[in-house]
Write a structure and sequence with these properties.
heterodimer, A: about 260 residues, Rossmann fold, 2 domains, 8 helices, B: about 350 residues, mainly alpha, about 0% strand, ATP binding (chain A), ATP-binding (chain A)
């Protein structure tokens, strides 16, 4: 793809505080998401990764401050309008496994279909494009109950692609996958951001992989949320501080965590 | 799509066939030619035959179709809304809620005074009370479903509501005079045959209302197949959908239970049986398919219930359970796992 295409801001926060009714998770957050970027959200368990994602996707209201989606304040958008900006891939697998691949991907077109949900020619085109992009056309008639975890992840991603939003959020897309498939998904996400100019933001525990493959990292740690490129993050001392120092340490020369 | 349209057309044809079969069976043997003549308003050999067909068997067959399709559809609505393959109007306590409404009218009316009871005991009161009963139980189940995410717990809660309502019914029966009690017991056996044309019309009005409301939910029901979080991310208005689905199910299950008694297993079994034939999960296709399937199954159950060649009519509720329970067991054993 053309690297010189103009980079535009899709999402930008302004003095954002996140948390729940009686609990502040982090304050004064400044995050910016641009087109074509692959961004990993990392942090230890319970640090507030999912609170941040929930707030950025409009699922949870900000405690203070604003989130702008292409100049529009997120709190002023209803769910129908929001569905044109943000699509999600969740860890929750409680969906009907009776659905076949094509049907599941087709549901991604719901924001664009009529009141009965009938697919137009264009909808079908977009569905096929998404299936092709993820190379799962030959699986299109298989039921979800017959797919492996890795294939299912691709199908869910294809659904998000079919929704055709500038922004895709994924919640820990590589859990349950072996190392090969973890790398496969990371590479796939990277390829998608390059081919489609969509921005993809995902929460992950795979810090080593994220440092190698992502354009930006959002680090959530002890009430602080910092956005940096991997290089900047490695130069800063932030990764060394991430975990207790008795078991694991960050080695800047190899750009990875090492067991002590 | 093409294949499923053929299946639907085939379904309608089979439905018509079973309807004629259902009308031709009964304690009095009427030749098929005379049956068609009665239906088509031509000359009939015996006037009593025409009377039996038009005033008894035809309204019964139409009731069977409305009851079967309505219950099967409310089963489908419940299974998708609760995302639970074992949900259905009977399992979740909707029929019990409707029973409570009916008991309040039949039994409660007789306890709290004769004049009032004869005033209240019109068919409309019965239907509205039953619908309110099922909507109430449904709202209660839904309210608890927000607190418990576990599907098994939800079913147990449905069972608990069923026992609660039946306890209230027991107390009412304890204080009721014998005739109203008998009236209630006969109602609870379930019957399709005692409806006058006027009552069929009332049932049809409620049925149409229920169907109409659920048609507006089709798109959001499809997104609910992915779960509530995905549905919201696709722009679905969850609160509105939930309310509409509950209203539709309450109207369908309530009015049907009011007239035909509590009928088990149709709501639970038919959506699963239909999914064995129709491979699509789109509610736009599942809706008519499940409705046709429910109507066919109900016609079959009714034909069995009237024991061809005899004067006896078995309680319809017993027949649906006798057929429905083995079917669900067979599906569970064969498929290992049911999906909604």
């Amino acid at each position: 793809m053309n690297i010189e295409t103009e980079i535009k801001s899709i999402l930008k926060t302004h003095q954002l505080d996140i948390g729940y009714a009686n609990k502040l998770i982090a304050k004064n957050i400044s995050v910016e998401i641009n087109t074509g970027n692959l961004i990993a959200v990392i942090g230890v368990n319970g640090s507030g990764k999912s609170t941040l994602l929930k707030t950025l996707t409009g699922d949870l209201s900000p405690k203070k401050g604003e989130i702008y989606l292409q100049q529009k304040n997120i709190t002023e958008l209803n769910t129908a309008q929001l569905s044109h900006f943000i699509s999600v891939v969740l860890t929750d697998t409680q969906f009907s496994h009776n659905l076949n691949v094509e049907e599941l991907v087709a549901l991604g077109r719901q924001p664009y279909t009529n009141w009965l949900g009938q697919l137009s020619k264009n909808d079908k085109l977009e569905i096929n494009k998404a299936l092709q992009l993820l190379e799962i056309e030959e699986k299109s008639l298989s039921k979800c109950s017959d797919l492996s975890d890795g294939q299912l992840q691709k199908v869910l991603l294809a659904r998000a692609i079919a929704q055709n939003t500038p922004l895709i959020f994924l919640d820990e897309p590589t859990t349950h996958l072996d190392l090969y498939h973890k790398i496969f998904v990371f590479k796939l996400l990277k390829k998608l951001t390059r081919q489609t100019e969509k921005a993809i933001v995902f929460a992950t525990h795979e810090i080593n992989l994220a440092l190698q493959l992502c354009d930006q990292i959002i680090l959530v740690n002890k009430g602080e949320i910092i956005q940096k490129t991997p290089e900047e993050l490695i130069k800063s001392n932030l990764l060394q501080e991430l975990f207790p120092k008795d078991l694991v340490a960050f080695d800047a020369s190899s750009k990875s965590f090492r067991v002590l | 799509m093409q294949k499923n349209t053929i299946f639907l057309l085939l379904g309608v044809l089979i439905l018509l066939l079973f309807m004629i079969l259902n009308i031709s069976l009964g304690s009095v043997n009427i030749p098929l030619k005379e049956i068609m003549a009665s239906l088509l308003d031509a000359d009939v050999e015996k006037e009593t035959w025409r009377y039996i067909i038009l005033e008894y068997r035809l309204p019964k067959a139409i009731t069977a179709i409305l009851v079967g399709s309505g219950l099967a559809l409310s089963g489908l609505l419940m299974q998708t809304l609760f995302r639970n393959p074992l949900a259905g109007p009977y399992v979740l306590g909707l029929s019990s809620g409707a029973s409570l409404g009916v008991a309040m009218v039949i039994l409660g009316g007789s306890i709290f005074g004769g004049v009032i009871s004869s005033f209240f005991f019109s068919k409309w009161t019965l239907v509205i009370a039953a619908s309110l009963g099922s909507i109430l139980v449904l709202l209660a189940v839904l309210a608890t479903s927000f607190r418990v995410k576990d599907t098994m717990t939800l079913l147990i809660i449905g069972l608990m509501f069923a026992s609660l309502t039946s306890a209230v019914v027991s107390i009412l029966s304890y204080f009721s005079p014998a005739e109203s009690l008998q009236q209630y017991v006969f109602w609870s056996f379930g019957s399709l045959g005692n409806l006058s044309w006027q009552e069929v019309l009332i049932l049809l009005i409620f049925w149409c209302l229920g169907i109409l409301i659920s048609i507006f939910c089709i798109k959001n029901l499809n997104s609910l197949l992915l779960g509530e979080k995905y549905a919201v991310s696709l722009g679905a208005n969850l609160k509105k959908t939930r309310l509409l689905v509950i209203l539709a199910t309450g109207l369908l299950a309530g009015s049907i239970t009011a007239f035909a008694g509590p009928i088990a297993f149709i709501g639970l079994a038919v959506p699963h049986l239909t999914r064995q034939i129709i491979t699509k999960n789109n509610h736009l296709i599942l809706f008519p398919a499940v409705a046709i399937g429910g109507a066919i199954l109900m016609l079959i159950c009714d034909s069995i219930a009237q024991l061809p060649g005899s004067n006896t009519t078995l309680p319809i509720n017993a027949i649906t359970s006798l057929i429905g329970a083995p079917v669900v067991i067979w599906l569970l054993v064969r498929k290992k796992k049911l999906y909604f």
